[in-house]
């Protein structure tokens, strides 16, 4: 099977799967179990100044479930480590000694003054860690104290603190970004300008999960009051992928290596991140939901996938980035129509009703008096809604028209590319 | 055959109390909340859903399942009961495998439909357990309607009429209302006196007076009702069991399946019921399956169902046939009884093998076989006792022993409606009777309002 050992910023690990800085990496006990299970690396739970912070003793987590109680989205209000710094440092030193082939990264969060960074970083680095990850991401609790996302939301602060860290550290510095911004590029650029060796993203998203339907308070609460937490898990992956791809495809930021984070649950999620530009990935929620054993599927699945594709891991990284572009460059001459495979169709009618109610009235429900769902090419805009809602995998597919006339527009099909930048309806069009 | 061998082996207490309790526990135990949520998640929420089309009462099935999914159980029950006030019983006794669940699109690739029946029960059980009112009455119309028959058709009609603001008197032949729900369904399909719980709920809407023990043709006539009430709905069941047309049919040991099923349902102690060692059931419908399986579960050693045609022609669904077989009942097809044997009690029954001739008609093959039997149950259908309508009902058209009605349940008498097993086009299902009662009530209302 394909070798999936990686070197990220010169740090080698037997596979590209690191545990993200979070509860699973809070103690040597957990990290030992993770490494025994086969994880390639761990970013230690974020360290802070002594005396340590304190956590609530009420609920820290809550989840959005499917009816089968599968965790779709996950929320936490846990802060950084609540253990004394020395305890963490001692354990980190021992872990690195016991597991020299695994990546060990120290996540750190400090107040915004240079002296503090200069004081703490060498102390931490002395444990033998492979790199620092600067936590500019946590959206809850610590951000109220001017740290975490409060830094990550201001590019100038990111750059400033990154510079301090680079000055104080001799190992590589990764900057962990918050997604709680309108545009991820300025923070990424700031990290790069501050000298960061890499960025990691995303941290969690500001969120309130729901209300309690009995008490009509937010849920969960600590003694009747709650606060917004950080949202993660499968549901956030698309948000993370977009931010990773934006950094990877933008000229000003694409040189910076990326550690991808956000909802990775099985190996396919890892393929998404890697192909869109991440060089390795970090996982937390899936481990918190299923335990460390999921590393088996992540490693095995990725390795077999690379075998099937005859790709080396390095060749997968960024493979899909060239396919990501701006809307304005999409080929407006390209025409697809949905096609329903009548052999596979179970006649649930979902495609019909969603097209009828919310889209283009392009799918029949009755043909010659029979319940039958067929695409009306003269109405179909190729939107993919029916494909998205069809419960039968592979039943509806999109097929390209390559000749003749589009029955919807009456326009001849052209194989020549033409996008918005030159379209006649665009008042700002470029002339050829 | 010696005299002692001819002695019929019929006795009670064939099984001990615990075994009987197990055998007569809920056939399909209710879903837990987590089971229900998972089952509900399998529903695709189809457009113009085939399951709804397949439901004789037209329940919005995807709609009620979506409400289960969102934990809106009362709303779900309302969706069900608004179309079918006996949705609780139907959840237990409907042959869903040939109705909603057969139509489920999940069958196409999985052969495992959404468990609609069990989900319907999940949604409705709390309503009947807690007698939660979901329906109210429209302003009183001052009209009074007589409903003859306290079974599914009659009670469904009465409930809908009460909802629409009319007052109703239900004349019911038996000591308890419910008709076949109370007397004619296998005990393990409706445990814990559910039929009565459902009736209590139906009556709780108000405006319905239930008169038990009053029988058409005996205690009152149709003509009297037509004079005293604004409209009459006839929802009587079928009276007497069809005859085998054989000699010695009155021989002890030869009996009606329907009557014994009623005895089982009404028994305080199942152990006291007399049970034959060898039981032969003649017939191929649900009643045949119910009596055969219950006999087996009461401790009968050998139970045979004999049906004159093949499995496809049986009135009992394939699921019911399988149920009989996994309970150790032998189903013998293509044979009909020709002779009942025995001196002072039935001992044997002789059959001839049948086949279809080239015109598709049943014919004898000339081959015979015999089964020994301590009890023979007739489960070959029932007939309407036309005599009870009396002579003063000229104009009530009856064809093939059933009352003729139009789509709205109107008989050929302008102020008389009918539904349930007593009308033509019925399929002898509770759910169909409920629908016919409901449809007739809506039409009666429309007529009385002069629309």
Q: What sort of overall outline of chain B do the alpha carbons produce when their principal axes are compared?
A: globular
Shape of chain A: globular
Could you say which structural class the secondary elements and strand pairing of chain A correspond to? alpha/beta
Q: Structural class, from helix and strand content of chain B?
A: alpha/beta
Task: List the domain count of chain A as a whole number.
Answer: 2
Mean pLDDT of chain A: 97
What is the fold named in CATH at topology level of the largest domain in chain B?
FAD/NAD(P)-binding domain
What is the multimeric organization of the chains shown? heterodimer
Span of the ends, CA to CA of chain B: 72 Å
Give a short synopsis of this structure:
Chain A is of the alpha/beta class and 432 residues long. Helices cover 29% and strands 18% of the residues of chain A.
Fold and architecture overview:
The complex is a heterodimer of chains A (432) and B (451). Chain A contains 13 helices and 20 strands. With 432 residues, chain A is of the alpha/beta class. Chain A folds into two domains: 318 residues, Aldolase class I (TIM Barrel); 95 residues, Alpha-Beta Plaits (2-Layer Sandwich), CATH 3.30.70.20. In chain A, the strands form six sheets. In chain A, strands 3-4-7-8-9-10-15-16 form an eight-stranded parallel β-barrel, surrounded by seven helices. In chain A, helix 8 links the parallel strand 15 and strand 16. In chain A, helix 5 packs parallel to helix 6. The model of chain A has no long low-confidence stretch (mean pLDDT 97). With 451 residues, chain B is an alpha/beta fold. Chain B folds into three domains: 98 residues, Alpha-helical ferredoxin (Fumarate Reductase Iron-sulfur Protein, Chain B, domain 2, Orthogonal Bundle), CATH 1.10.1060; 152 residues, 3-Layer(bba) Sandwich (FAD/NAD(P)-binding domain); 138 residues, FAD/NAD(P)-binding domain (3-Layer(bba) Sandwich), CATH 3.50.50.60. Helices cover 35% and strands 18% of the residues of chain B. Chain B contains 18 helices and 19 strands. In chain B, the strands form six sheets. Chain B has a five-stranded parallel sheet, with helices on both faces. In chain B, strands 7-15-9-10-11 form a five-stranded parallel sheet. In chain B, strands 12-13-14 form a three-stranded antiparallel sheet, with no helix packed on it. In chain B, strand 12 and strand 13 form a beta hairpin. The longest helix of chain B is centred in the last third of the chain and has 19 residues. Chain B starts with a helix and ends with a helix. The relative contact order of chain B is 0.14.
């Amino acid at each position: 099977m394909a070798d999936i050992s990686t070197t990220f910023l010169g740090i080698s690990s037997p596979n590209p799967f690191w545990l993200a800085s979070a509860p699973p990496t809070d103690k040597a006990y957990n990290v030992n179990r993770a490494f025994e299970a086969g994880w390639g690396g761990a970013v230690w739970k974020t360290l802070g100044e002594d005396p340590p912070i304190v956590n609530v003793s009420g609920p820290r987590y809550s989840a959005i479930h499917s009816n089968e109680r599968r965790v779709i989205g996950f929320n936490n209000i846990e802060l950084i480590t609540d253990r004394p710094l020395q305890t963490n440092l001692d354990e980190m030193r021992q872990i690195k000694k016991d597991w020299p082939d695994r990546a060990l990264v120290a996540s750190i969060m400090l107040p915004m003054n240079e002296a503090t960074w200069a004081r703490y970083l060498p102390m931490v680095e002395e444990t033998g860690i492979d790199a620092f990850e600067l936590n500019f991401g946590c959206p809850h609790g610590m951000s109220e104290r001017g740290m975490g996302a409060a830094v990550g939301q201001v590019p100038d602060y990111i750059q400033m603190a990154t510079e301090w860290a680079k000055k104080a550290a001799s190992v590589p510095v990764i900057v962990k970004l918050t997604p709680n911004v309108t545009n991820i590029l300025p923070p990424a650029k700031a990290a790069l300008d501050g000298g960061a060796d890499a960025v990691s993203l995303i941290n969690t998203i500001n969120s309130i999960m729901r209300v309690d339907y009995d008490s009509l308070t937010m849920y969960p609460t600590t003694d009747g009051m709650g606060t917004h937490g950080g949202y993660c898990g499968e549901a956030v992956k698309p948000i993370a992928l977009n931010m990773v791809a934006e950094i990877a495809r933008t000229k000003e930021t694409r040189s910076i290596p990326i550690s991808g984070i956000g909802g990775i649950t099985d190996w396919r999620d890892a393929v998404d991140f890697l192909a869109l530009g991440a060089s390795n990935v970090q996982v937390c929620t899936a481990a918190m939901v299923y335990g460390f054993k999921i590393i088996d599927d992540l490693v095995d699945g990725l390795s077999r996938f690379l075998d099937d594709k005859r790709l080396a891991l390095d060749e997968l990284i960024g493979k899909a980035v060239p396919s990501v572009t701006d809307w304005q460059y999409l080929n407006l001459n390209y025409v697809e129509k949905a096609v329903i495979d009548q052999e596979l169709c179970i006649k649930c009618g979902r495609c019909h009703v969603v097209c009828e109610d919310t889209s283009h009235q392009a799918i029949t429900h009755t043909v010659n008096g029979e319940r039958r769902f067929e695409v009306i090419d003269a109405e179909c805009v190729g939107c993919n809604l029916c494909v998205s809602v069809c419960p039968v995998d592979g039943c509806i597919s999109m097929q390209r028209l390559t000749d003749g006339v589009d029955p919807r527009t009456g326009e001849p099909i052209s194989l020549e590319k033409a996008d918005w930048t030159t379209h006649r309806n665009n008042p700002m069009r470029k002339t050829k | 055959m010696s005299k002692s061998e001819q002695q019929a082996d019929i006795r009670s207490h064939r099984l001990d109390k615990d075994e009987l309790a197990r055998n007569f526990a809920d056939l399909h135990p209710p879903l837990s909340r987590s089971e229900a949520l998972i089952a509900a998640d399998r529903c695709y929420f189809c457009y113009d859903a085939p399951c709804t089309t397949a439901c004789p009462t037209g329940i919005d099935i995807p709609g009620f399942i979506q409400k289960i999914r969102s934990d809106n159980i009362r709303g779900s029950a309302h969706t069900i009961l608004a179309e079918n006030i006996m949705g609780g019983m139907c959840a237990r006794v409907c042959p869903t495998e040939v109705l909603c669940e057969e139509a489920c699109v999940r069958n196409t690739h999985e052969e495992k439909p959404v468990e609609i029946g069990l989900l319907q029960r999940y949604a409705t059980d709390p309503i009947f357990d807690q007698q939660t009112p979901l329906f109210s009455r429209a302003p009183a119309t001052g009209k009074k309607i007589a409903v003859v028959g306290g079974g599914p058709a009659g009670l469904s009609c009465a409930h809908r009429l009460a909802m629409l603001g009319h007052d109703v008197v239900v004349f019911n032949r038996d000591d308890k209302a419910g008709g076949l729900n109370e007397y004619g369904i296998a005990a393990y399909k409706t445990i814990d006196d559910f039929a009565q719980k459902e009736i209590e709920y139906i009556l709780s809407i108000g405006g319905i007076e239930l008169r038990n023990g009053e029988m058409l043709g005996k205690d009152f006539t149709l003509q009297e009702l037509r004079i005293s009430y604004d409209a009459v709905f006839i929802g009587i069941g079928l009276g007497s069991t069809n005859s085998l047309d054989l000699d010695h049919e009155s021989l002890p040991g030869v009996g009606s399946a329907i009557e014994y099923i009623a005895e089982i349902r009404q028994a305080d102690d199942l152990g006291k019921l007399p049970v034959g060692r060898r039981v032969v059931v003649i017939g191929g419908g649900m009643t045949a399956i119910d009596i055969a399986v219950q006999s087996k579960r009461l401790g009968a050693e050998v139970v045979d169902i004999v049906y004159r045609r093949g499995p496809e022609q049986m009135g009992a669904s394939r699921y019911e046939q399988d149920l009989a077989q996994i309970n150790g009942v032998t189903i013998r097809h293509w044979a009909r009884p020709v002779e009942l044997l025995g001196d002072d009690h039935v001992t044997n029954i002789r059959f001839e093998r049948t086949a279809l001739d080239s015109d598709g008609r049943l014919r004898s093959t000339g081959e015979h076989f015999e089964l020994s039997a301590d009890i023979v149950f007739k489960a070959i259908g029932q007939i309407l006792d036309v005599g009870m309508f009396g002579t003063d009902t000229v104009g009530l058209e009856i064809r093939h022993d059933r009352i003729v009605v139009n789509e709205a349940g109107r008989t050929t008498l302008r102020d008389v409606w009918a539904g349930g097993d007593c009308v033509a086009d019925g399929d002898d299902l509770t759910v169909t009777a409920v629908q016919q009662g409901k449809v007739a009530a809506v039409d009666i209302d429309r007529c009385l309002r002069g629309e």
